[in-house]
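Weekly sync, protein design subgroup
Attendees: M.S., D.O., the rotation student, P.L. (late)

Item 1: inverse folding check
M.S. brought a backbone from last month's batch and wanted to see whether the design step gives back something sensible before we order anything. D.O. pointed out we never logged the input encoding, so this time it goes straight into the notes. Structure tokens as presented (161 positions):
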């Protein structure tokens, strides 16, 4: 029985692939950063999704709910759950657009602006502490790679629509 044996098939497991390893590392880092930031913001009684809204309104005062949802990559249903919470706390306000009464513009209140500044300070400290051993050049390489990935995923999502 000296039949020639078929070569043993080699399995290529995804975790052996450098791109898979990179993808998983980014996902895990993102998840851990969210958990860390959630703990750090607890005393302010806000969570990272609230911070995302507050920071964007800080930067882009008067944007619409639709523009905000697009910037945060979330659906309108997520916005319609989070915005009333912030509005009820007196952190944001919605105002009608001067030109189009169907459009609502979002702005921070004075207390919303103050809370945003506190939260951004906390977030900056979390980021600085987490990345203090990373050279700026390395941070920029990672940022560019992630920005490129975001662009590809957004394009793919747009193609799927």
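Designed sequence read out in the meeting:
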């Amino acid at each position: 029985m000296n039949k020639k044996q078929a070569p043993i098939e080699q399995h290529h497991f995804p975790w052996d692939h450098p791109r898979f390893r990179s993808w998983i590392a980014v996902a895990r880092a993102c998840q851990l950063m969210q958990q860390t930031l959630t703990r750090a913001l607890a005393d302010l009684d806000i969570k990272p999704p609230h911070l995302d809204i507050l920071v964007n309104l800080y930067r882009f005062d008067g944007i619409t709910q639709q523009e905000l949802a697009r910037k945060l990559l979330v659906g309108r249903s997520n916005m319609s759950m989070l915005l009333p919470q912030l509005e009820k706390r007196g952190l944001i306000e919605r105002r009608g657009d001067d030109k189009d009464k169907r459009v609502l513009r979002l702005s921070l209140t004075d207390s919303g602006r103050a809370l945003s500044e506190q939260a951004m300070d906390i977030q900056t400290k979390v980021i600085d502490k987490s990345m203090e051993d990373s050279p700026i050049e390395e941070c920029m390489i990672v940022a560019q790679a992630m920005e490129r990935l975001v662009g590809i995923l957004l394009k793919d999502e747009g193609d799927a629509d």
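Discussion: Helices lie at 18-41, 48-59, 65-72, 76-88, 110-131, 136-160. Residues 26 and 79 are 25 Å apart (CA to CA).
Action: P.L. to compare against the previous round before Friday.
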